[in-house]
Amino acid sequence: MAAEAVNQRLRDGLLELTKAAQERGTDPLIWAMQLSSRLNAAGVSMPSVEVAELLVSHICWSNNLPIAWKFLEKALTIRVVPPMLVLALLSSRVIPSRRRYPVAYRLYMELIKRYAFSLPSLINGPNYEKIMESIHDILRFDQIFGVQSSEAGVLVVEFIFSIVWELLDALLDDEGLLELTSEKKSRWPIGSQDMDIDYLDGFEGRIERQAALRKINSIMAVEIIGDFFRNKVTSRILYLARRNMPSHWECFIQHLRLLAANSSSLRNSKNITPEALLQLTSDTRQVLSRECKTSLQQQFHAVTARSPVQSPCQYHGSVRSGLWLPIDLYLEDTMDGSQVRATSSAETLTGLVKALRAINQTTWEDAFLGLWTAALRLVQRERNSSEGPVPRLDTCLCMLLSITTLAVVNIVEEEGVKLSSETEQFCTGKRNCIESVGRRREDLVSSLQRLDDFEGLLTPPPAVTPLANQAAAKAMVFLSGLSVGSGHLDGMSLNDMPLNCSGNLRHLIVEACVARNVLDTSAYLWPGYVKGRGSQIPRNISGQMPGWSSLMKGSPLTAPLVSALASTPASSLAEIERMYEIAVSGTDEEKISAATIFCGASFGRGWNIQEHVGLLIIRLLSPAVSPDFSGSESHLIGYAPFLNVLLVGISPIDCIQIFSLHGLVPQLAAALMPICEAFGSCAATMSWSLNTGEEISPHVVFSNAFTLLLKLWRFDQPPLEHVMGDITPVASRLTPEYLLLVYNSQLASYENSPKNQNKTNRLSRLSYPSSRMPIFMDAFPKLKRWYIKHQECIASTLSGLVPGNPVHQIVEALLNMMFRKVNRGGQPLAPTTSGSSSSSASGTDDSSLRLKIPAWDILEAVPFVLDAALTACAHGRLSPRELTTGLKDLADFLPASLATVVSYFSAEVTRGLWKPAYMNGTDWPSPAANLSMVEQQIKKILAATGVNVPCLDIGGNSPVTLPLPLAALVSLTITYKLDRGMDRFLNLVGPALTNLSIGCPWPCMPIITALWAQKVKRWSDFLVFSASQTVFHHNNDAVVQLLRVCFTTALGLNFYSVASHGGVGALLGHGFGSHFAGGLSAVAPGILYLRVHRAVRNVVFMTEEIVTLLMLTVKDIANSGLPADKMEKLKKTKYGTKYGQVSLSAAMNQVKLAASLGASIVWITGGLNSVQSLIKETLPSWFISDHGSDPNWSEPGGMVAMLGGYALAHFTLFSGIFAWGVDGTSPASKRRPNVLGKHLEFLASALDGKISLGCNKATWKAYVSGYLSLMVSCTPNWMLEVDVEVLKRVSKGLKQYNEEELALALLGIGGIGAMGAAAEMIMETASC
């Protein structure tokens, strides 16, 4: 109480001093000195918060006199009172009364101009935090902005923002514009209840002068707003508000745009125009991130030669296509038929395009064009590919016309959703709103128009030329005035088509975009889009052909119509939904016809509705229980003929790839498991007759479903086949449990995710899962038991077969069936335990009857059958031919048993317990006819690619052998006829056989290749190419050589190759095949690597080698791609200086391309885990390690060292952005905060000196500056996920490198938590 009394007496004394001085007209300076003396005597620190409150209260409004304002101004001058606090106090009093006291308002603004831009003095002055707390107590920012922070720096941002916003709203109010805002009022207390004529200002003047002063005040206010955005310090402070308070900023900007469009004061100003004000406040104006790039550029310019070694055009080709090189690599890798993905490629591609656009800083038009051209290159490479067992054309076209289009739709609709919400918010309360057209949609149109410049990429493959011509004819029909939806094209035969429709792939792309509503039919009016004339469209069609329009008009499903619909893709969702209704509620015959149609062209080439067709097929595989069903068995049994047609129809490997590309594999697996469980549990005592006359049993349906299910994961190998440390390849995760886990996750996303209206609109009403209940393996006990036994069979030798038990009886029956023609005088074949035999092999008459049992029971016995047969062959009781024939009989009896044959033989080969089989043509088939040719072609492929691997000779007169189980397996496969009926079973065995052979010692793979090349000569090139992969499986050095070639080829650094200029064309080539003189063509190194990287077991080793190769490539770039010996010779000549260096711009582009290639390889090879291991472990280890033995890395400040740091910066960001995505939409992005936080913690610790580095300081400095600069520019939202204290430590370390601008930019994007530190750094930097 005593202290309060003293303070009150002091306040009273100061007030009396002021009033007395005011009455006497004392000079303001003398008054200020007296005031200061009294405060010093009382022990009050200055500037004083209490005195500021006292003086402002004195003026407002009982002493609103000129001398009182002069006293206040003098107190501000000698720092008796804090200027910012005075401004805060005045703003809450003067602005609401500005009409009543215009002169006071004018003086307030004069004080703003004098003191609001002196923020550095605030932070360097005393009582900084106390002053800001007092300002917060006055203006209550927490209630206005909702930011619960009392940090002084945060309060500075809010204070500056509030000053500008109050002035803006006061202007709007004065000009009658505030009513036009969406809120129709200000959040600030700017309104006045006083009448305009009631002027009580203490300054002399007439009403007319007051009115004029008000106009001048309005002009002054708008100019001050402009000054806040012009001033370097305050503009940066306002940038922090824009960045970290987006909702408030958006409201502020709407008010400002309203002012710019309607304000007379702004138009009357001589210092600022509406256009200039909008430009100053534009989101495109960079106030922090732009300048942070320049310091790094200046560092590189300082060490770079001014005289380039090469003309820029040499680099242009490689760099331009190199911007989108990761897309080409991803698309080509996705085409690998041996790989099935559980997630949608469209979603992955969407994230990849967004990531590349962010890091390349391009327009959406360029991004879309890069995507389209990459997908077109994929199709064109397929045109020149050699024929093989896995057709790729439909898969490539699916990628171009469905997956790529869906990725574009995702990107365009993402903006559409944002625009819709903004438009809805802006238009609230207004009658008329104009529909917004997003910039991305406009850029899409521009990119498609520019595709016409890539004529060489637009030539359609012959198989789809008719469809391309039909798309072009559709545009001609549209321009001719005929109705496209009238069925005119549907009934037109190819003979009726105009001869010069000139349809190409662009026409198909445009149709895909039109069908998915991201483009309209105005595209038909583009110059040059329609080559022919509308008069060429025939009005009288020679003969009406049945088609989808006939179906929609109600035509019955006759045989000709079914044939037509199966061979012609549906053009709309309504057509395929109509077919679904028939498949569900039609007659049995109609259901069979509908199933045939679903698996026809509408799925294979119905690109505009392909994912819907796939989803509907999956729904058809899970038919509902009919109301009148009362049987004890599964209701699925009654649908056997219908289900079988579907299963056979989607069993080709290219169909499975289409399911995989659309991310439908988990749903397909969930639909197949109940079918396998039901039909595998059903005895083969019933059968069904098909219309074709074929008779099917439960075993047939089961085998078709089971083999299809097994193609969805690597069933022939253990789940953790390639584990190295804690790194597991993505491929090995595909197990039944994992597929169901993904399926259940997808179900949850349907239920829990917020509904995206645009995405919902393009889904069929029937596209959602028929069941919303999660599925687990426990729901399928027979399948689960088989899977457990299957894994046991792979992991260990067989045991547990007891004579007389049911399994032993089935084993005997199967052996009798397989070897019934073999007469061995009662020699036993069936084992009682592993490795022993006691049962007779004599046939029994009822063996076929005994095998009319459920398929699951047969599969349980098959491993023991195989063990007995292989043992008998090894001991000479069965000849190789008899063994092969018996295996073929087993596979014909129950095709599902092929899975066990493959997995059991693979396991036995790896165990290495069997003696070799001599491939001499007598006992086993001989590869001698072309084995030498295969060997030479493998050598040719490797040599042409630049890989040197010694000791590939098979070895003169050495006998050609294979492990006995492998010999049996390959002999079995070559007994199959190559027809559509057997393809689905060969495609089950083929990938497993290849994987097994690659892992076997040399020359197993060439032997198998030679045997298959004898059987199918047209596959010879493909088979030889596949055989070359085994070299890389056994030789890590070969992999490193191949990667080295990839880098030099992509960058055009191969000094010995005159034709190579780098880029996508050099890296991936134009397709693989024998279409060149001399037979087998050279294989592009990128294609070869993408086919062999799954054979490389040590993914961690690969990642480390890629970092090493990237650094070697940087040296090559700095040396202009010249070999070391050439470089040394050149340096000794008088031209050495000129030609021994490379320009900075060319080097930067090359380094970025090398980094994107390296990051793409890491991501594609090892997926998310490899990228995270790279960032958490590999890179920190590299920086800590000593690289001093290499003079290029030890030279202080050398160009090579700095380029290396810059390359690693790009490499790290590329890797992270590929794995996590640029935003938070992908599931992988949830792992980003942890990994990124640990990496920045490493940077902070190294900058703090807590970690000793072994690398070159120039490399480290370039890496830190480059990596953080890239994140500021390309992925600013990532910083919101990093701990603020870590960001502050990193920023502090950057200041040691004279990177204040970068440090400031980093804090500026760090969110509310870092905003205060950023604001204080802005003020500190300005004071230096």
UniProtKB/TrEMBL annotation:
Output the InterPro entries linked to this UniProt entry.
MED33A/B (IPR039638)
| Keyword Transferase part of the UniProt annotation | no
Q: Which top-rank group of organisms is this from? A: Eukaryota
List every stretch annotated Disordered: 826-847
| Compositionally biased intervals (Low complexity) | 828-846
| Cellular component GO terms, alphabetical | mediator complex
Keywords noted in UniProt: Membrane, Transmembrane, Transmembrane helix
Q: What is this protein called?
A: Mediator of RNA polymerase II transcription subunit 33A
Q: Which organism is it from?
A: Handroanthus impetiginosus
